[in-house]
């Protein structure tokens, strides 16, 4: 791969595409390399931001996830679900036979 000073080249994109088993047209290699270099440039700008002493706004570790009870039920919505069915019989959907 190219070193960070030179960025990503069209040859690098070709190698990445081959390793990823993706087909990329030859005329698209350089535009993709330019796009990747633009993304890497934005990442470099983010690396320049001084975040010393800045706490994260949210964290999955600090906030417990709300959990529901693990109870088996039918959902209690059978009639709501079946009311729009074109055909129903004894609380079930009626569908055309697919295997004879």
Descriptive report:
The protein is mostly helical. 37% of the residues lie in helices and 4% in strands. The protein contains three helices and two strands; from the N terminus they run αααββ. β1 and β2 form a beta hairpin. The N and C termini lie far apart (58 Å).
Write the layout of secondary structure elements.
Blueprint: H1 10-19, H2 26-47, H3 78-82, E1 88-89, E2 92-93
Antiparallel strand pairs: 1-2
Helix pairs in contact: 1-2
Strand content: under 5%
State the strand order across the main sheet.
1-2
Find the structural class using helix and strand composition.
mainly alpha
Name the average pLDDT. Answer: 87
- Could you describe the largest sheet, including whether it forms a barrel? 2 strands, antiparallel
Helix content: 25-40%
Could you list the spans in which at least 5 consecutive residues all have pLDDT below 50? none
Q: What is the end-to-end distance? A: 58 Å
- Computed over alpha carbons, the radius of gyration is 28 Å
Overall 3D geometry?
A: flat
Helix count from the secondary structure assignment: 3
H/E topology pattern:
HHHEE
